[in-house]
Amino acid sequence: MRFRLRTILPEGRAAEKAGGASGADLPPAAPPSPRGPKLIEKLASDAFLRSYENILVEPATAWGWPAGPVWPPEPQPKPKPPSEAAPDAAAPADGTPAETAPETPPPGLQRHWVNGHAVLTPPETSGREPEVIEGPCVWAGALMGHFGHFVAEHCQRLLFSRMLMPKARYIFTLPEGRGVKSVPSYFWHLCDWFEVPREQILFLTDRPLLVRELHVLRQGEQLERINLPFDVIHHEWCGPLPEYLQALAELHKVKEIDFASGGTVYVSRSQLAPLTVRMPGESYLEKRLQDLGVTVIWPEKSPLAEQIEAYATAKRIIFAEGSSVHVRQFLGYLPQDLCILVRRKGARFGREHLEPRAKSLSYIDPIACNVLFTVTPDGSPSRHTSIPIFDQDLLLQQFAEFGIDLAPVWDRAAYERAHDRDLADWVRASCDEAGIEGIAHGINIMNASLLGSGRIEYMPKLRRVAMMRRRGLIEQRDAEASGKAGTP
Q1: Which residues pair with 51 in a beta bridge?
Q2: How far is CA 468 from its chain centroid?
């Protein structure tokens, strides 16, 4: 087989109504079989569906998560009898036989799953009087303020829900302080793509809901984290369930799109803000790609519906690593060649999600090193805000290996100038973020990452950029203070 899918959740029982908790040991989702039950019948089975009565759904935080239903406690197994205790279990001081502690059962499908593990953090309790909602509803997810996290984490139940319960209302929470008018257009485009009627969306803003009848479908896939803490050592399959790929294939059939019939598409980050981390020299790279007939897309300027259609029709897609990769997850398997231009050295962003969806998946990783300027409050490196320094030879070589020979249209000096301009823009933006007092520390972190990677030639010029920006910020502060002092 080209790839292997593993069951995300363990086996289990159906949930009981009247507030009953999900059962432990979830039944595995079987691969689609021509002789097996139809997809809808599978979605209605214990392996995919939980149903509850009188469930409280709490509003979100400003970030948008945690939020949602307050699930009932899951059943705890009884302690093992003394005869089944572990042989080396220590006996209590009074001489009575030792009993092994009960194991915590695996949580059910109703919870939010990331990286193969259930998120057990409950939503914050608002304490407000809930609004009672009658009629069948489905818990769909949290509309977070971050596009990438929403599309990667909180819309993987929606297609299953629409297929099984097309007349239900679909509940989404909004970040604290956001109203319905703030809902971004990409959310509505996603609903349209999944053919979810807009009028059946129920947004939870600042007041909790008491839902008389709430159903929840299994996630079709999960977020695969690539910046895991060192203490996270157990990773489970996060890619699409076979049934999810089957559901997406059914969706393809009703779309009037000529799938995988076009040319090559490059999805760019070049017009994002510097601190969002652009690919260095990307503005030059994309012009040369256009010279070779490649279509360049800037996702922040394209409606989601147009992005989905562009990815659906392309024969080859190159993504600059980022949230736009997740948009490809709204499509199922297509005979495409996919590629990701890496911005965090060694990261294989989206592998488990994309491999089952494409003919091939490859990575262009020409990074000599990633440069840091800041650390998190606990002292960990801020890898997500680090900028790569590209090895130009590797960049050209790996594009050629993917089938795009840039050499005939390439000017090495022009690329280097564009590359270093982007580095300087990133340094200035990092200085603005750090503030006058934090710049010296940021320079030390930057120099350490350059020294450790052997790219010491960048140390003096990037330090010069940082010191000039610091001087400019000081002059700006002094001018503002002088202006205020002169104000009567």
Answers
A1: 215
A2: 36
Dihedral pair phi/psi, residue 50, rounded to 5°: -125, 145
Q: Where are the domains of the chain?
A: 1-72+107-226+237-254, 255-477
Q: Is the pLDDT of residue 230 over 50?
A: no
Closest listed residue to residue 327, CA positions, set 309, 352, 351:
309
* Dihedral-angle region of residue 454 (phi above 0 means left; psi in -120 to 50 means alpha; beta otherwise): left
CA distance 330 to 354: 11
The number of angstroms, rounded, from the C-alpha of 338 to the middle of its chain's C-alpha atoms is 18
- Integer CA distances (angstroms), 427 to 106, 208, 274, 440, 449, in order: 46, 44, 9, 12, 14
Indicate the length of the chain as a whole number. Answer: 488
Cα angle for residues 338, 339, 344 (degrees, 5° grid): 145
pTM attached to this predicted model: 0.83
Do 217 and 43 contact (CB within 8 A), yes or no? Answer: yes
- 212: its two tokens: 């008389």
Output Rg (C-alpha) for the chain, integer angstroms.
Answer: 26
Banded pLDDT at 34 (limits 50, 70, 90): very low
Distant-in-sequence, close-in-space partners of 378: CB < 8 Å, separation ≥ 6:
none
Q: Quick one: tokens of 68?
A: 């949602």
**Contact between residue 224 and residue 351 where contact means Cβ atoms under 8 Å apart:** yes
